[in-house]
Design goal:
Blueprint lengths: L1 H17 L2 H10 L3 H10 L3 H10 L3 H10 L3 H10 L3 H10 L3 H10 L3 H10 L3 H10 L3 H10 L3 H14 L3 H10 L3 H10 L3 H10 L4
């Protein structure tokens, strides 16, 4: 009976070991079931090992998501940026207050207006104006340039804004302020202000 009991205990130990998460992970890795292995590691509280495994296997997007799960947005952002997932990188950078990096990531994702908003949060007004100009938010760009004291460029952008919304007289006046005489003349002509247009074209020698 004692021998039977010992054999039974040995059998139980073997079965427990066979079902242990460590052995299951090793088996999954040997079978190249990397995602299943990483999920098991995460489920058993071994997130760092899961991340190491995923990075070793070049599964950087999945590693970044594990970083998100444990609240490490900085490392998640760096990995997302490395694989070119700029929107995900921006989201993580924004969560930790790294607005400049978030803005640059959104610029790479061609989300220029949101990038402009984040450049403002990062106190980089010049880059914000550039972003707004890129997405044809001329009013926002022009107002920022006015704040910077760049009156001519601001006037040119505000001229574009007023032209786009059909306020042609305002647009013509802003093009004049910007020194863009040809655009001003053409805009006044479109507005039906032929005398103003004629005066400008006369100055340009085109009348």
């Amino acid at each position: 009976l004692a021998l039977v009991a010992i054999l039974f205990l040995i059998f139980r130990v073997i079965m427990i070991q066979r079902d242990s998460p460590e052995l299951k992970v090793d088996k999954l890795i040997a079978q190249r079931k990397i995602m299943e292995a990483s999920r098991l590691l995460v489920e058993t509280g071994r997130q760092d090992e899961a991340i190491d495994l995923l990075i070793e296997e070049r599964r950087l997007a999945e590693a970044a998501r594990v970083y998100l799960r444990i609240g490490n947005h900085e490392r998640a952002a760096e990995l997302f940026a490395k694989i070119g997932d700029h929107e995900a990188a921006a989201n993580s950078f924004r969560k930790i207050g790294r607005f400049l990096e978030a803005a640059k990531a959104l610029e790479k994702a061609h989300r220029y207006e949101e990038a402009g908003d984040l450049f403002i949060q990062a106190k980089d007004v010049k880059q914000a104006a550039r972003m707004y100009n890129s997405c044809k938010q001329y009013k926002k760009a022009g107002e920022l340039l006015l704040r910077m004291g760049d009156k001519k460029r601001a006037a040119a952008l505000l001229g574009k804004h007023y032209s786009d919304i059909g306020e042609l007289t305002k647009a013509g006046k802003h093009f004049l302020l910007a020194g863009k005489l040809k655009q001003a003349g053409e805009t006044f002509y479109r507005a039906g202000e032929f005398d103003k247009a004629a005066q400008i074209f006369e100055k340009l020698g085109e009348f």
